[in-house]
Amino acid sequence: MPHYFRDLSRTACRLVLFALLPLIAVAGLATPARAVIELDITKGQIEPMPIAITNFVGSGEEAGRYGVDIAAVVSADLKRSGLFRPLPREAFIETVSNFDQAPRFGDWRIIQAQALVTGRVTVLPDGRLRAEFRLWDVYAQQQMVGLQFVTTPRNWRRIGHLIADAVYERLTGEKGYFDTRIVFIDESGPKDKRVKRLALMDQDGENLRYLSDGQSLVLTPRFSPNSQEITYVSYAGGRPRVYLYNIETGQREIVGVFPTMTFAPRFSPDGQHVILSLQQGGNSDIYTMDLRSRETRQLTDTPSIETAPSYSPDGRQVTFESDREGSQQIYVMNADGSGQQRISAGRGRYSTPVWSPRGDLIAFTKLLNGRFLIGVMRPDGTGERILTEGFHNEGPTWAPNGRVIMFFRDTPGERGGPRLWTVDLTGYNEQQVPTPNFASDPSWSALLK
């Protein structure tokens, strides 16, 4: 018996368990075959892999519509990564109508597909959706991975993102980044009277939600490690305060009322602290606050402007910007404030350093010769590389797999304004992220749970 039929027998047993779960459930459909095709994404620009993604077979008319929509999300995610080239469906020779049968691999080789994704959607008696998919190595004629998901219909887009993540991981060996969210500042209205609202959306620009009404200025939103909370600065009441916002409950909480200006709060990797800068007189220093005891601890103490702190993934170090030596530069210190040392050494002014989730790089903004650049360097300051430049680029934030950086790019002129963009760590595949209005200061969540 072919292995893909044996796999489905296991699936039928596991579905009984997943029917009890209220949210998305995931299970393996198959014992993956050894990967024959793969993408090495560590060596810079590569030729996108041609991949065929069929419309998922539906158990009825409604399921069929979901099948088409889910397949479209998978295709769009993989295409935006720049690593895959979904083939046009007009070129398909085989129409996959039976998910339980192996594909006619010869038909897919003719159109030069190296990988093939097939799927099936079923509307369960309780109204939930069950989506199954398989990734095939066309030339080895092997199934590489098979998974199923059970969820409510409103989560159908997340199924698409989860399948895209699974395909990405199986073919690249790296975690995907599609089942994630972006929090950012939505900007609308005339340039001299911009209304700024806190906004949340999926990484592809869908499912937009506004988290503030625009009555008060909001700045620097940042996700908690579990992606369930956001910290940000709001001028509600006429003075800046640091807030926590719970995405699920909608509850807001003031972290602390500080007597001075506060800037750029960001969570520690364990979610137990917030690190931020407080301004007194003409300078600012970096502090941490314990979110349980609300006790603060000062980490820097110099007559200069020190801000934009960001923890390393292990929480042992912090990178920040300071003008203590006359111009903005990037520094690194231990989490207790000891061992402060400058790491940026090139020409220009450096700002907004953000530590990669992988720990191997720090992203930054650099102002040089009137141009704003987004780049990366190692935590010891070596290996500086510029990924992109423009009239005004700023605010880098990392995808959870540390392979893509999002930032905002402002454009000059009366009609100009900021937009969100992404760029690969290799400096290629620069793409604008769709938003309904101007958008700035993005923060990328971890993979959703």
UniProtKB/TrEMBL annotation:
Entry's localization field: Periplasm
SUPFAM superfamilies: TolB, N-terminal domain (SSF52964), Tricorn protease N-terminal domain (SSF69304)
Function, as annotated: Part of the Tol-Pal system, which plays a role in outer membrane invagination during cell division and is important for maintaining outer membrane integrity.
Quaternary context: The Tol-Pal system is composed of five core proteins: the inner membrane proteins TolA, TolQ and TolR, the periplasmic protein TolB and the outer membrane protein Pal. They form a network linking the inner and outer membranes and the peptidoglycan layer.
Name of the protein in its database record: Tol-Pal system protein TolB
Positions with biased composition (Polar residues): 299-310
HAMAP family: TolB
Family to which the UniProt record says this protein belongs: Belongs to the TolB family.
Region (Disordered): 296-317
GO biological process: cell division; protein import
InterPro entries per record: 6-blade_b-propeller_TolB-like, Tol-Pal_TolB, TolB_N, WD40
Keywords: Cell cycle, Cell division, Periplasm, Signal
Highest taxon, organism lineage: Bacteria
Leader peptide range in chain numbering: none
The keyword Zinc-finger belongs to this UniProt entry's keyword annotation: no
Coiled coil stretches, renumbered: none
UniProt key word 4Fe-4S: no
Pfam assignment, any one: TolB_N
Gene3D superfamilies in alphabetical order: TolB, C-terminal domain, TolB, N-terminal domain
UniProt domain TolB N-terminal: residue ranges: 38-144
Any one GO CC term of the record: periplasmic space
